[in-house]
Write a structure and sequence with these properties.
Elements (H helix, E strand, L loop, with lengths): L22 E2 L2 H20 L6 H8 E3 L1 H10 L16 E7 L9 H9 L4 E4 L5 H8 L7 E5 L4 H14 L1
Parallel strand pairs: 1-4, 3-4
Antiparallel strand pairs: 2-5, 3-5
Helix pairs in contact: 1-6, 3-4
Protein name: Ribosomal protein eL8/eL30/eS12/Gadd45 domain-containing protein
InterPro entries: Ribosomal_eL30-like_sf, Ribosomal_eL8/eL30/eS12/Gad45
Pfam families: Ribosomal_L7Ae
């Protein structure tokens, strides 16, 4: 028999507790999504290769649970005693829809990202978070995206506005 959950702020099935302040929702969510939108548009304008938009976007962002999981698994776990060469693709930050059903679809991402020292941002918007995240990457819905560390304008914006503020 499963023990009752003592911390109501903990996400069921997740090994690390998520505080209410860790969620991006409302105006904070709009700011995050707007920031990513501006970063991708600016980076796209500075891109001299002029690739088609979908191809360029896939080079910058891992889209979907499977692709985010795949990229995280290819990254080496961070250990202090190991000198390793970095894989070709690193994730700077992972954004996950917190209110997806069933939760089992995304619960593995937080542990996997934590083992690679990749911050996870949880978003929720009254069951519309997957629609809003999908709009960001030109799809109908998305449950998870990972911003690839490419050293572009999007990465600099996220580093300055999100990652440093939350740490």
């Amino acid at each position: 028999m499963k023990a009752p959950m003592r911390n109501p702020q903990k996400i069921e099935g997740d090994s690390s507790s998520v505080k209410e302040s860790d969620y991006y929702e409302g105006e904070r969510l709009s700011h995050l999504l707007g920031l990513i939108q501006r970063g991708t548009e600016t980076s796209k304008l500075l891109n001299v290769n002029s690739l088609p938009e979908k191809i360029w976007l896939k080079q910058q962002i891992a889209i979907g649970i499977n692709e985010v999981t795949r990229v995280l698994e290819r990254m080496k776990p961070n250990t202090c005693d190991q000198q390793q060469q970095s894989p070709s693709v690193q994730l700077q930050v992972v954004i996950v829809v917190a209110d997806c059903k069933p939760r089992m679809l995304t619960k593995h991402i937080s542990n996997l990202a934590a083992s690679r020292n990749v911050p996870v941002l949880y978003i929720r918007d009254n069951r519309r978070a997957s629609l809003r995240l999908g709009e960001l990457v030109k799809l109908k819905t998305a449950l998870a995206i990972g911003v690839k560390a490419r050293g572009n304008n999007l990465n600099q914006l996220l580093e300055r506005e999100i990652v440093q503020r939350d740490s």
